[in-house]
Amino acid sequence: MVDPRMTRLAEVLIHYSTAVRPGEKILIEAIDVPHDITNEVVRVAREAGADPLVTLKSNIVLRQLLIHGSEAQLKLIAETEALRMKGVQAYIGLRGNLNITEMSDVPADKMKLYQSIWWKPVHGDIRVRQTRWVVLRYPSPSMAQQAQMSTEAFERFYFDVCTLDYGKMAAAVGPLVARMKTTDRVKILGPETELHFSIKNIPAVGCSGKLNIPDGEAFTAPVRNSVNGTIRYNARTLYQGVVHENIRLEFKDGKIVNARSSESDHLNTVLNTDDGSSYVGEFALGFNPYITRPMLDILFDEKIAGSFHFTPGSAYEDEADNGNRSAVHWDMVCIQTPEWGGGEIWFDNELIRKDGRFVPPELQSLNPENLK
User: Residue 92 belongs to what domain range?
Assistant: First the structure.
């Protein structure tokens, strides 16, 4: 018997996140997830009248492809996947992970080839721009271990997070998006953090289950050269298979001029990937009420209630563009709830959020008790 929580999740993905219509083609890309959830998404897609295409992948195999791959091989894979992606109207990425550090020993030059030749052309240029898409992590004992929870408890948490009332969240985020669209100056204060930047005339987007599951953020981007000050991120972060703690960045006129972490060499290698990797491409506020602590999975961590992320690398070109281009997009998270040291976010000299809670009356519907 299929777990009814799987059915509910599949219905959210098909009917809400991708809003699949009869006759449409949908690509379901399943990476290290149980066949049961893939089968259920296929079943619900067919009930909706769509024609699903399924690809099964493994991170262990992907690692081998990257370590031993040639440029010509990666181009061939990219061309094949691009052709498939161009043929569908919707995409669901079911992404599991048996080992979060599987890619940690892939050489940096190979990872850069993968991002530029395969990932960006297929996913950045085609999927993001030409399909209705949603990406989610799927629970595993590895994820439960990351969250320091039992497997059973983590599964309960996961389905609460992923099947909440995203329609309610969509209504609640509207006033915050409106505020962000009319804001010029942003100030962020916290432990070892004082940042100043502008978001003037940069679009703002509310995210409530249409692109990511779980969801719960509103994002924009800083004016590229406007960022000044320092920030200390207090959530651990995983990038290219390497775990970083206590990242500290110093900015001058938009550019990162000093960077340190528990893995400073790797951090600076990534930030020197290209001309845009040392500038910021996204600023976002997180507010998913069920996510309260980091678990080394960015699809969860960037949605933590009371958090923000400030992202070195490429901007979202078609949604909140500040002109920054890079092969890198690294969502680094800072949590501002009292347990994590607190903090403040100001828009044009008005206090918007203090210690992780929204202050203006029209934004208080985004506080955790009002979204559950």
Answer: 4-162
